[in-house]
Amino acid sequence: MISVNDFKTGLTVQVDTDIFTVLDFQHVKPGKGAAFVRSKLKNLRNGNVVEKTFRAGESIGRAIIENREVQYLYNSGSEYTFMDNETFDQFNLDKKQLEWELNFLKENMNVNISSYQGEILGIQMQNSVELKVIETEPGVKGNTAQGATKNAKVETGLNVQVPLFINEGDVLLIDTREGKYISRA
């Protein structure tokens, strides 16, 4: 058990039967009445963000999340197969669990998997990945004052806004948190 007074950003807790990570919190001491903690929590099972208020000093369950490195092998339909790098056990995740991550996931890529008491909650990718441009229109010099961009499609199917000098076949560094171009690799 953990007191809500000890909340920190990134802490994982169990409220009722759901597992949450603390995104934001604020200790409030009103002039009249009891103190409380206002928090913003992200549900790790479905991704919903909720706001909850707790009485100061209230105890809730601490959720210990296990992270381990796995390798993405292949997909067949809506099932994506991963292999544990230590035990070589293979398991499948459904496409619904990987919606955002599929924009960056390539075969044989290593990612971290998060689980709670054997239940797989999702995967965490590195902050940036290298992806090859497969389709983009040629850059045209002209009426641009600064920062002109164009659309480019990378090997995973993600469309990214890139500078005009990027060509097909270039390998780019893409931010996995926002899906934006960082630089050439």
From TrEMBL:
Residues 67-121 form the Translation elongation factor P/YeiP central domain. InterPro entries: Elong-fact-P_C (IPR015365), NA-bd_OB-fold (IPR012340), Rib_uL2_dom2 (IPR014722), Transl_elong_fac_P/YeiP (IPR020599), Transl_elong_KOW-like (IPR013185), Transl_elong_P/YeiP_cen (IPR001059), Transl_elong_P/YeiP_CS (IPR013852), Transl_elongation_fac_P (IPR011768). One of its GO terms (molecular function) is translation elongation factor activity. Its main location: cytoplasm. GO terms for cellular component: cytosol. It is found in: Cytoplasm. SUPFAM superfamilies: Nucleic acid-binding proteins, Translation proteins SH3-like domain. It comes from the Bacteria. One of its GO terms (biological process) is peptide biosynthetic process. Pathway: Protein biosynthesis; polypeptide chain elongation. PROSITE patterns: EFP (PS01275). Keywords: Cytoplasm, Elongation factor, Protein biosynthesis. Residues 129-184 form the Elongation factor P C-terminal domain. Involved in peptide bond synthesis. Stimulates efficient translation and peptide-bond synthesis on native or reconstituted 70S ribosomes in vitro. Probably functions indirectly by altering the affinity of the ribosome for aminoacyl-tRNA, thus increasing their reactivity as acceptors for peptidyl transferase. Belongs to the elongation factor P family. NCBIfam families: efp (TIGR00038), PRK00529.1 (NF001810). This is Elongation factor P.
